[in-house]
Write a sequence for this structure.
């Protein structure tokens, strides 16, 4: 199971920063996930930020600054999970990854079907991940939405595996990046049988990490990569 650090290691150091990437490296991850967002000022600059509220609250790295750091020798054995937060700047991200020699080590992810299509057309060799579901906030955190969300979750768990495998077999993507609530044994089996990879986000509970590893998922994404070395579950072994 690949060990993936969310925004680097956002529960150790502020996410999408060199400090967070370094913390993930030191925790022994196999892959570092980070977010890419286009600045709203018309400059076209790409930032490492999860959303515009995040970008406005601090001085985020530019994509070039982040890639320059991750192209360092210390990170040479790691893969990158590049999460495009909105559509429209796929070519710029591909060009930046190429310029730093990182395209071969990157899995480029998006929640938007038009971005999947754009990435595939622009660079057929790129590894592409479809991130599901597209939500602004967790509905289970609102009491009034909890029950209807539970019903919707059961429907989604039943209906998503064929959608995922259809996307993989049509080569619209190479990997499925799925929220842990949507994961079932059936989804794992069918994605792997279709030749795809299955990464699960964002899991900050050791018991859940162990359960997902037992199901055979390709990778787990966590904000605290130290959890992978938890002696309780002997995940390091």
């Amino acid at each position: 199971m690949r060990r993936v650090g969310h925004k680097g290691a956002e529960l150790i150091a502020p996410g999408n920063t060199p400090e967070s990437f370094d913390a993930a490296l030191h925790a022994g991850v196999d892959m570092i996930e980070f977010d890419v967002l286009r600045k709203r000022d018309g400059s076209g600059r790409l930032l490492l930020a999860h959303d515009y509220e995040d970008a406005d609250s601090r001085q985020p790295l530019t994509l070039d600054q982040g890639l320059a750091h991750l192209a360092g020798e210390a990170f040479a054995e790691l893969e990158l999970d590049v999460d495009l937060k909105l559509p429209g700047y796929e070519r710029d991200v591909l060009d930046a990854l190429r310029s730093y020699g990182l395209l071969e080590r990157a899995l480029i992810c998006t929640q938007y079907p038009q971005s999947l299509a754009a990435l595939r057309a622009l660079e057929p060799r790129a590894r592409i991940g479809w991130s599901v579901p597209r939500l602004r906030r967790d509905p289970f955190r609102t009491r009034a939405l909890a029950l209807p969300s539970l019903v919707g979750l059961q429907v989604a768990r039943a209906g998503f595996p064929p959608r995922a495998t259809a996307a993989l077999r049509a080569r619209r993507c190479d990997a499925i990046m799925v929220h842990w609530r949507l994961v079932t044994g059936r989804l794992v089996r069918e994605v792997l049988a279709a030749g795809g990879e299955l990464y699960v986000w964002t899991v900050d509970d050791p018991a859940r990490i162990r359960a997902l590893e037992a199901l055979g998922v390709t990778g787990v994404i966590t904000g605290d990569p130290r959890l992978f070395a938890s002696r309780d579950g002997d995940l390091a072994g």
